[in-house]
Amino acid sequence: MATLLLFFLLAVSVVSADEDAFIGVNIGTDLSDMPSPTQVVALLKAQSIRHIRLYDADRALLLALANTGIQVTVSVPNEQLLGIGQSNATAANWVARNVIAHVPATNITAIAVGSEVLTALPNAAPVLVSALKFIHSALVASNLDSQIKVSTPHSSSIILDSFPPSQAFFNRSWDPVMVPLLKFLQSTGSYLMLNVYPYYDYMQSNGVIPLDYALFRPLPPNKEAVDANTLLHYTNVFDAVVDAAYFAMSYANVTNVPIVVTESGWPSKGDTSEPDATLENANTYNSNLIRHVLNNTGTPKHPGIAVSTYIYELYNEDLRPSSVSEKNWGLFDANGLPVYILHLTGAGTVLANDTTNQTFCVAKSGSDSKMLQAALDWACGPGKVDCSPLLQGQSCYDPNTVVAHATYAFNAYFQHMAKSSGTCDFKGVATITTTDPSHGSCRFPGSAGKNGTLINGTSLAPSSNSTSSGCLSLYFGGGGSFTNSVIMGVLLFSVVLL
């Protein structure tokens, strides 16, 4: 078995181990208030995003990207694929208009021909390889083929029997397309583009795949999935799918084509049928994915080998049809505010989300007042927040509303907990913002205008059983209601301590 494993590891010289992986971002445009190209580029620069993928070749955005150095993958939309795949001249015209017109000022490094064609547009599959070859020929004619790679993104669903990965193979009904496609990628030094969505794998597994396994959360050794043929241990769905694709290629006698993951992510909101589409899970998945990729962890089959990945996606696309989750894969709203703040300590500067480190936790608009009150009680009690500024006559008493007071208490707890995962949720009635909620003489913990010595952004209440902060007596009333409030708060909001 050791000899077999060594063979697998040596036989596939995919990408040199000293080539660092990168994190990129997909940019969709199905927004009712799509930012201007200059606004998009400004956000990319502020977030140190150096790799992007477009779903078309939008001229205005490509012009705005000129002289930024940002590496761009442009795309041939599916609706243009049939024409390009049947005409060398049409392909050459497309390259001239959408690529040659923009390089070298705009750093176009790849062309994605179609998107998930085999599963989304199977009637175009017969011309897919021709389309790639025609596009590539146009690049060769312009001496751009060495700097611009040509490929096509695939859904991971074309891989059958994906676990154990060593037994995975491509759907053989697509052999007339996949075999010449892989040979083309091999001969041109390109890579297999693969869309990997552990969220959907988890959702479709009917409980077989644990949520932690999908989210890259640490697993005890006895919970890791083991490939019985190679004895490789898999701690997350992402690696298992990528390795399944490597093994599937090897069964097609292609052993030196690298993989770039062109889409991966997790939705931050869903309907009642998608209970795990949450801000916290989206944050956990994307934060862990970014760390995993940028640490050059590789996969069990190819440890240390780059698996560069594009996150889906930059913006929430509110115009996308279908489910609620389809509209909520973005890292940012259309106004450029982060949907959530990624937990990226030690993962470099890319996608820091918060370029000023000025992020605050506030009460979510439209939240139930009873839920807000319970959360406020918890923060000022068991949460040990110093709520004395909320007492009558103090700096943050006005406006005297549950929303305003809860916002202060939520943020104080959030700052004290160093903005760590799960500390701005409060059972769904809190959210993160980059807008400082301070007002007048009321300075919120974490504000750049806050004076005095801070302990992780705020101070604790004097003690958990003291009313000297004023918050306990103000919000809990007598001893009986205090005890009930504490119990209710612990039951409702213990999640923030996890």
From TrEMBL:
* EC number, as in UniProt: 3.2.1.39
Q: Which Pfam families match?
A: Glyco_hydro_17 (PF00332), X8 (PF07983)
Q: Where in the cell is it found?
A: Cell membrane
Q: Which Gene3D superfamilies match?
A: 1.20.58.1040, Glycosidases
The protein's annotated catalytic reaction(s) are: Hydrolysis of (1->3)-beta-D-glucosidic linkages in (1->3)-beta-D-glucans
Q: Which residues cross the membrane?
A: 472-497
Could you name the Gene Ontology cellular component terms for this entry? plasma membrane; plasmodesma; side of membrane
Q: Which UniProt keywords apply?
A: Cell membrane, Disulfide bond, Glycoprotein, Glycosidase, GPI-anchor, Hydrolase, Lipoprotein, Membrane, Plant defense, Signal, Transmembrane, Transmembrane helix
Q: Signal among the record's keywords?
A: yes
Q: Name one GO molecular function term.
A: glucan endo-1,3-beta-D-glucosidase activity
How does the record say this protein sits in the membrane?
Lipid-anchor; GPI-anchor
Q: Where is the signal peptide?
A: 1-17
Main EC class the enzyme belongs to: hydrolase
- Protein's GO biological process: carbohydrate metabolic process; defense response
Q: Which residues form the X8 domain?
A: 359-444
Protein family per UniProt = Belongs to the glycosyl hydrolase 17 family.
Q: What is this protein called?
A: glucan endo-1,3-beta-D-glucosidase
Supply the source organism for this entry: Carya illinoinensis
